[in-house]
Design goal:
alpha/beta
Length: 464
């Protein structure tokens, strides 16, 4: 085969592969279907909540409770509403559970925001009824098993083009659920980088009559008292970090049926969750005001277009844009820690695990996790003293704007600790932490470690 002919064959094959990937990725959003799906899910969730909180068949049609009683939305809600009118929003939530995508979809509807597109795992489309609702709510498909460059570039091109066309977007920059329970530290830069690419192209295409639409990044932190998948997630994490010293369990939530079961089990529990909406950022991580203007550290207006200008014109500089996305990623992580809302369940888990570390200073993590039951008992009064000391440190961090605190954490110590113990890992067959008389018993060190990790990164360990 001649070189020119071989090149043509290769280009044709590449085009076919890209076309197939694009068809697989793209969603099937329709306005009418979106309105129906949004109303149906809101109604269904609310009725399910009533059925599990208010007993009896008639509770399905009761308005005694709604999702607002269970899901608390806090933070910069007015800011995101205003920014959605002025530009294109990219919402970047933390990711702990399979519930996250559906939860954020409800939050978008509750806040009265326009439709968002978002990436969802291909496994969620296995069942037709789930596929219908996912498509209707703006989902596009992401196959995390595919790591080849052609697929990844097709996915990024899809995201970039959608942003340039003004589609509000949502993706989890951590890439997948946090296996360890930590707030994400190292974000995936691929899709995040499309926000910078899209903004630069919009500036290139703008005219005096048609100024460029601005892209805003909104960090969102999801707070649960418990994560249904925690046992398998932490075992997966420990296997990866401890090499072969831990086995990998299968993910229990790989089918639509299991996800539906997951939702029902969540609503049968009395635990609340909160969603913290962060303040909007520009694509360089600068805060923006209510009018969408970027602000420097002194509160002065700056123009993001200038970040792409070289020798008086907008230029393409991949190295420069890679540095910009790293700056943005770091800023998002900082905002996650700031808007993280401390629950009592987080703090009881952190306190107990740190006390065990202090009692066993010569043990590494993996040996600590293997301690026998008789060595994982804490005195309640010592535990309460340590918990109260850490709570005072968290109050100081809150005053400095470095973390957020749930109202229930501010109750009297015994009451707040009781709530924390009742909620931490409440779904699991073996709760990580319980109180028995004057003792606090650790029943599962692995899941305790998972829930403890939520409070890492604040320097609290030196105070216990």
């Amino acid at each position: 085969m001649a070189p020119d002919e071989a090149k043509n064959v290769e280009e044709k094959l590449l085009y076919e592969i890209i076309h197939r990937y694009a068809e697989e990725i793209s969603g099937n959003f329709k306005k009418n279907s979106y309105r129906f799906a949004r109303s149906f899910i809101t109604f269904g969730f609310a009725r399910l909540l009533n059925a599990t909180r208010v007993k009896g068949f008639t509770s399905l049609f009761s308005r005694q409770l709604d999702l607002g009683d269970k899901i608390h939305i806090v933070g910069e809600t007015e800011h995101i509403r205003e920014l959605a009118k002025r530009g294109t929003i990219v919402m970047v939530p933390t990711h702990f559970s399979n519930l996250d995508s559906i939860l954020i979809g409800w939050v978008i509807q509750f806040l009265g925001l326009p439709a968002f597109i978002y990436g969802a795992g291909l496994n969620l489309f296995n069942l037709k009824i789930f596929a219908y609702f996912m498509n209707s709510l703006g989902a596009y498909k992401v196959d995390r098993r595919k790591k080849n460059p052609v697929y990844l570039e097709t996915l990024k091109s899809y995201s970039s083009m959608a942003l340039r066309r003004g589609c509000h977007s949502l993706f989890f920059p951590g890439g997948t659920r946090s296996r360890s329970g930590h707030i994400e530290k190292a974000l995936k830069l691929g899709l995040l980088g499309t926000t910078i690419e899209a903004q630069r192209i919009l500036y290139e295409q703008e005219t005096t009559e048609d100024p460029a639409r601005k892209i805003y990044i909104v960090p969102v932190v999801i707070n649960y008292n418990f994560t249904l998948e925690a046992p398998s997630l932490i075992n997966d994490y420990l296997k990866r970090t401890g090499q072969e010293r831990y086995y990998k369990e299968a993910d229990e939530f790989t089918t639509s049926y299991k996800i539906a079961t997951f939702l029902f089990k969540f609503f049968t529990k009395g635990s609340n969750i909160s969603v913290s909406i962060g303040r909007g950022l520009d694509i360089l991580g600068n805060y923006v005001d209510m009018e969408g203007h970027s602000l420097d550290a002194n509160g002065q207006h700056i123009h993001t277009k200038d970040y792409f200008v070289s020798d008086g014109k907008i230029t393409i500089d991949p190295q420069r844009e890679q540095e910009y996305v790293r700056i943005l990623a770091k800023r998002i992580v900082d905002e996650y820690h700031k808007y993280n809302r401390v629950f009592s369940s987080h703090l009881v888990a952190y306190t107990a695990f740190k006390m065990m570390e202090r009692k066993n200073p010569k043990l590494d993590l993996y040996n600590l996790l293997r301690l026998p039951d008789e060595d994982t008992v804490l005195d309640y009064e010592e535990f309460k003293k340590a918990w109260k000391k850490l709570r005072r440190k968290i109050y100081k961090l809150e005053k400095k704007g470095k973390v957020s605190v749930a109202d229930h954490l501010k109750a009297k110590a015994d009451i707040a600790i009781k709530e924390g113990l009742e909620n931490v890992g409440m779904y699991h067959a073996e709760r990580p932490l319980i109180r028995k008389g004057n003792q606090v018993l650790i029943q599962n060190m692995n899941t305790l470690y998972y829930y403890h990790n939520r409070m890492e990164g604040y320097g609290l360990e030196k105070h216990i």
